[in-house]
Amino acid sequence: MSLFATTIAGSLPKPAWLAEPNKLWPAWRPAGAALDDAKRDATLLALKLQEDCGIDVVTDGEQSRQHFVHGFLEFVDGIDFARKVEMGIRADRYKAMVPTVTDVLRLKSRVHAREAQVARAHTKRKLKFTLPGPMTIVDTVADAHYGDRVKMAMAFADLLNTEARALEADGVDVIQFDEPAFNVYMRDVEGWGIEALHRAIAGLTCTTAVHICYGYGIKANIDWKATLGSEWRQYEQIFPALAKSRIGQVSVECRNSRVPSELLKLLEGKDIQVGVIDVASEKIETPDEVAGVIGEGSDHRRHQLRHGTDALGHRVRKAGGARQGRRARAPAIRLARGLFALCCLAATTCRTHNLLCRNRSELLTTLTEESAIAAAAMTGESRMPKNG
Fold first, then answer.
1. 5-376 CATH fold
2. Side-chain half-sphere of 238: how many Cα atoms within 13 Å?
3. pTM score, two decimals?
4. Of 54, 204, 242, 353, which alpha carbon lies 20 to 30 A from 185's?
5. What value, to the nearest 5°, has the Cα angle with vertex 118 and ends 24 and 122?
């Protein structure tokens, strides 16, 4: 493992042959058995890209999920997807059409067995798998059954725990719960949000993590962030409670988030995943910029730092790989050989953008051709999803 271990928040852009581009909620392109095969191929590609970039703890890139929350909900009985209603998300920051909970929640079957097992079989590196957190789930569905937000969250936590235990049995090393709602409902985090996470991780022996962030680079989030001022101190309210929790790691966006780095001191005793790549921007970070974020985090922490991407990964980062390819390739080489031995993440987006827009059959052929992989950041026109 590197001096500073690297990972990504979780997601990567989906290839255009797998899902509709330029959409936050993309429609699948194939159907039936062909869709299953395409998801598998995209998962293998995501693993290869991360390994080529020197990532220490890889993920499946969430290639089999249309949405980070609904990818789980599709396997839950008691939710009516035909009964969608418009609801305010993240304290009415933006509106979305969401399914309705109409009955007692139960898992239909395993949720992520196939992609977890495929990923585990095709990488020797540590494997992280992401699940939506209970608080974020209840903030993304309508309730016509429980009549109590906390009760419904605990019900989801129990389902998440069942799947998390199975993922651990599949060989997953790190299970991360994504909780962007944690920076919206700060009082509830301490009141019941962490308790729900504890139910979700009950009985696990693998590493556990929670990812918190200020959301995707969509217009509603960008407009909201513009109202937060020069320092974003929301985490000051929840970090002490997270420090006392049984969660092993806390993933925090730090690149361009205006979160004062000294707040990391409030997470004493936790491993911290420091987000050093801004996924809401087309700009490829320079080595100095990435190292600067690492340095700020290190100044305020005596415990283990890990480094990854901000927000929920690269899923909705705008295209920019072709324009930035020449700049990204050299920083990736320098960073990979540098003192920190971690930040070839700077090239992850560029390489991903160019590779994923190629013909699918060509991609599968070039997975083992290192020269083609290395050259990908220098060629082609990117057509990756824009914010939607």
1. TIM Barrel (3.20.20)
2. 26
3. 0.81
4. 204
5. 110
